[in-house]
């Protein structure tokens, strides 16, 4: 069985995210040691762009798969959760890349464990978006659930529109078939009428020709009778 393209691309995206985390650690180590990190920054930017493009493609593939019912709603929800986690990871990596590496120990811990060290908040959270700034874990989770519900509602609406368009297409196809049948019947009727008309025209011509021949024969017979009468009529 061939691997699912979406899952394969998701695995590839996770691998790229891991590469970015490792490159960021290496860059921060170079900065602490006073080494040149320009090449690493270029590599990280390229990987971040690649990750963003893959995530955008994953979004498109997931939307198409759900709208065309290639996957179940349950599988669609599972993949959406995976995609949301990957988006969060991308934002964290982007924020970490922008960090100048002045907190190397804390950054290393966050990159490797994603957690908190010695009661200090994960530095990535300091770079979070305005939508989640100041929210607790439960509030963020509720926000994500609302977003997922809105996306589900949008997908359901899209599915309904596609279903109606499909039904309209089927109705139009059925109507065209009926119209084609009517046109075929009319064509056959016209053809039969033309054949009958041609046959009647030939018949009329034959009758007319016979009538003309009979009329001429009557005239000739009458002339012959007249001549005979004159010939035998006594003269005085």
From TrEMBL:
Main subcellular location: membrane
Swiss-Prot/TrEMBL keywords: Coiled coil, Membrane, Phosphoprotein, Transmembrane, Transmembrane helix, Transport, Ubl conjugation
Annotated membrane topology: Single-pass type IV membrane protein
Annotated TM spans: 214-233
Gene3D superfamilies membership: 1.20.5.110
Cellular component GO terms held in the UniProt record: late endosome; SNARE complex
GO biological process terms held by the UniProt record: intracellular protein transport; vesicle docking; vesicle fusion
Family label: Belongs to the syntaxin family.
Protein name: Syntaxin-8
